[in-house]
Structure to design on (130 residues):
């Protein structure tokens, strides 16, 4: 009995995750469309490259997040973290120590993916993306 209820809950949660992923993708595509529209209508749009980079990298992180929601695997989660930290390094140039800490975090995430995520799991993910 408990196994059947657990299976129903998993299906419901999977469906909710998919709905959230679709809604997030729709919002991200809308944001991308607005950015393209602004690019051609605002005369000095490229003068503010920080704003452009911020918006585009936010869309990239959002797309990685959607991919993670669709296929919840440790490797996808690590990729989202790597992209989010890389975005932070690119957009903020506050402190050399924080940049160094971010780079160390990214290296740690790559090492985690390399040594702690099973090779079988990575092969399955790579074959699914091709």
């Amino acid at each position: 009995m408990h196994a059947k209820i657990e299976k129903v809950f998993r299906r419901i949660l999977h469906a909710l995750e998919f709905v959230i992923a679709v809604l997030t993708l729709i919002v991200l595509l809308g944001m991308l469309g607005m950015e393209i529209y602004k690019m051609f209508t605002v005369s000095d749009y490229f003068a503010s490259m920080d704003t452009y980079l911020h918006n585009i990298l936010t869309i990239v992180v959002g797309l990685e997040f959607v991919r993670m929601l669709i296929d919840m695997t440790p490797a996808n989660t690590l990729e989202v973290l790597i992209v989010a930290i890389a975005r932070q390094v690119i957009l903020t140039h506050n402190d050399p120590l924080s940049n160094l800490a971010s780079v160390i975090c990214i290296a740690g995430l790559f090492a985690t993916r390399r040594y702690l995520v099973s090779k079988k799991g990575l092969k399955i993910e790579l074959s699914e993306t091709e």
Notes: Confidence is low (pLDDT under 50) at residues 126-130. The chain has five helices and no strands. Helices lie at 2-41, 49-70, 74-91, 96-116, 119-129. The CA atoms of residues 78 and 109 lie 6 Å apart.
